[in-house]
Design brief:
252 residues, alpha+beta, eleven-stranded antiparallel β-sheet, 6 helices, 11 strands
């Protein structure tokens, strides 16, 4: 079998396996889950596509309650960077290292085994933070998983963490949303939206599930870049909350 076809076969098998595992993850988070002193509330999974253009928007979200002092200890730009790194760490763990992220100053590459097998290529992350909300956004540049129409940075992956009121004394609540917006998946353009929903979309749910568990445990990976130390170094969040944005497409 030619190398390219062999790689494609391995990717297809991995996608199928993790599509099944994501169902398990989603079922586990269909009810509150306690992890140490933290509780992850029900996971919400909403994926839509524009029937005219094929652009996909997917949001996975959940509330996490934890001791108030734990949240205060991690509410900083440094920990926002570590939060971002934790998301990629679980992706690598969930794929047994077959898929992992590589870093440069200007870009992030999600690769299968090694370059040149780049699944997704992102621009450098954008960080925003104030006293109530922290945002990390990676704009999608190109990659094997991106159709031609989705290249150039209009689509993005974003983690949005919002502090919410909590009626439990001594505890705090955060709302975490992981959003993919304005994404044109190559697999959908070639084989149909149903295949994207059954594969890549489900894998995204699995990765979000693992990511939320790591946040609840305060198990945050050290940042590879480590650029920020104080909140003054970051702009305040500018965009509306993900669920307040209209439609599937968001051009910024």
């Amino acid at each position: 079998m030619p190398p390219a076809k062999a790689v494609a076969a391995v990717i297809a098998a991995a996608v199928a396996a993790y599509a099944v595992l994501s169902r398990v993850g989603k079922r586990l988070l269909s009810r509150p889950v306690r992890i140490g002193d933290a509780v992850i509330q029900e996971l919400h999974d909403d994926t839509t596509s524009d029937p005219r253009t094929g652009a996909v928007r997917s949001i996975q979200s959940a509330d996490i309650t934890m001791p108030e002092e734990d949240l205060e200890a991690i509410w900083s730009p440094m920990h926002l960077e570590r939060l971002a790194r934790t998301y990629w760490r679980f992706l690598s763990r969930a794929t047994l290292g077959l898929v992992h992220v590589e870093y440069t100053d200007a870009e992030r590459f999600i690769v299968f085994l090694r370059k040149p097998f780049v699944l997704l290529r992102f621009q450098a992350p954008e960080y925003e933070m104030d006293g109530a909300r922290g945002v990390v956004r990676w704009r999608i540049e190109r990659g094997v998983l991106v159709s031609r129409r989705g290249r150039g940075g209009d689509g993005y992956l974003e983690i949005d963490v919002q502090r919410r009121p909590c009626d439990e004394p001594g505890r705090a609540r955060i709302h975490v949303e992981v959003e993919v917006a304005n994404f044109y998946p190559a697999i959908a353009s070639r084989f149909g939206q149903w295949l994207y929903a059954a594969t890549q979309s489900r894998i995204h749910v699995l990765v979000t599930y693992g990511f939320l568990r790591n946040v609840a445990k305060l198990d945050l990976e050290e940042s590879v870049v480590g650029r920020f130390a104080t909140q003054d170094e970051l702009p305040d969040p500018r965009q509306p909350l993900p669920r307040d944005r209209d439609g599937v497409l968001l051009r910024t």
